[in-house]
Amino acid sequence: GIVQGTYETYAELARQHFGGSLKGTLNVTAGLGGMGGAQPLAITMNEGVALCAEMEEWRIDKRLETRYLDEKHKNIDAAIDAAIRYKNEGNGKSIGVLCNVVDLLQRLIERNITPDTLTDQTSAHDELIGYFPQNMSVEEAKQLRESNPEKYTKLSLDTMARHVEQML
């Protein structure tokens, strides 16, 4: 299934780039819905640290309940601090942080922290329903989506551009 495939992808990554294990690595991603929900478990199964941005708190809570995720943080710096501590300890843990990925990536950049791996599992293929513009709560996004889908789409595309620039 999805977990097995995701596990194998990270296992191969570990073999090719990290001596067979993700132990002592920081792996950053975004999006804990659908297929993205398998990433934190696959990373920790390979002994790495997963730091996952997610806008919708219920998705984080669902991953905690199913034990695909170990911790939830609402403060970005606290989440980064925990991830770095686990990385330094060689402790495979996964952290969901309630934020927009561009805010997480910005803090990592400002703190001069480069992840060992960086992926994205947001629904960036769906700029109206699947992606959240920066500086907007889930509720604000829902309202703008309904009242002005054209503006929402433009803001999503602007955020995606920033997201890709930060990843690079």
Walk me through this protein's architecture.
This protein has helices at residues 2-17, 39-45, 57-65, 76-89, 101-110, 138-147, 149-167, and strands at residues 26-30, 49-54, 71-73, 94-98, 117-118. Helix 5 runs parallel beside helix 7 (149-167) and helix 6 (138-147) packs across helix 7. By secondary structure, the chain is an alpha/beta fold. 51% of the residues lie in helices and 12% in strands. Strand 3, helix 4 (76-89) and strand 4 (94-98) form a beta-alpha-beta unit. The protein is globular and about 50 Å long.
What percentage of residues falls in helices of 4 or more residues?
Answer: 40-55%
Fraction of residues in β-strands = 5-15%
The number of E-state strands comes to 5
Calculate the mean pLDDT score and round it.
Answer: 93
Report the major sheet: 5 strands, parallel
Task: Give unreliable regions as ranges.
Answer: none
Q: How far do the termini sit from each other?
A: 30 Å
What gross morphology would you assign?
A: globular
Rg calc: 16 Å
